[in-house]
Amino acid sequence: SAVISQKPSRDICQRGTSLTIQCQVDSQVTMMFWYRQQPGQSLTLIATANQGSEATYESGFVIDKFPISRPNLTFSTLTVSNMSPEDSSIYLCSVKEPGQGSGELFFGEGSRLTVL
Amino acid sequence: AQKVTQAQTEISVVEKEDVTLDCVYETRDTTYYLFWYKQPPSGELVFLIRRNSFDEQNEISGRYSWNFQKSTSSFNFTITASQVVDSAVYFCALRGDSNYQLIWGAGTKLIIKP
Fold first, then answer.
1. To pair with B104 at 20 to 30 A between CA atoms, which of A39, A102, B81, B93?
2. What are the tens digits of pLDDT across the range B50-80?
3. Which of B42, B91, B100 sits opposite A96 (nearest CB)?
4. Nearest CB to B45: which of A1, A31, A92?
């Protein structure tokens, strides 16, 4: 399976600032996704990162708050903008490898964000 | 609508006991896929297993086994002779045939005491 690296692994940020999380995959993948996991909760899909075009956002998430870039098939970034304490979560990058019709996702180690 | 229910919020057992984590799902798709993931305290999500709806054969992998029952819409996960390293949150997830979105259960926190 693909090896997925996320940076930073954790950070503590001040309210009102923005943070960009990077996701690097060691092979080309067709589909990349960003998830949020609030403390003690399950995973919520933020968006699908599309290579060469705008990301597709899920209900409740908007581009102004969570801009996403995907310049190529191995890299994506998620920015959490104008942060508030409610944004404290683990943010996870996940990928679906080419040719896998069954669709299991593989995940990075996550970026644990605390907003003060 | 699709839904995954993990009714057990938290389970605590003593090491070497067997433990079963329940997962019940709802879907109208005739073809679908079920998954289990493990999330240890470090936070990463580790893929454990995928089961296709047309394959009801149960699976065993070492101390782990999975029981897929379409008749009861359940996909339960059993750990035999549990170990402290099994302590984690375990998520069950469902994907229908129409898109790649995973529907996640709420997770079961498993605590294995030495």
1. B81
2. 898 988 888 888 999 999 999 999 999 999 9
3. B100
4. A92
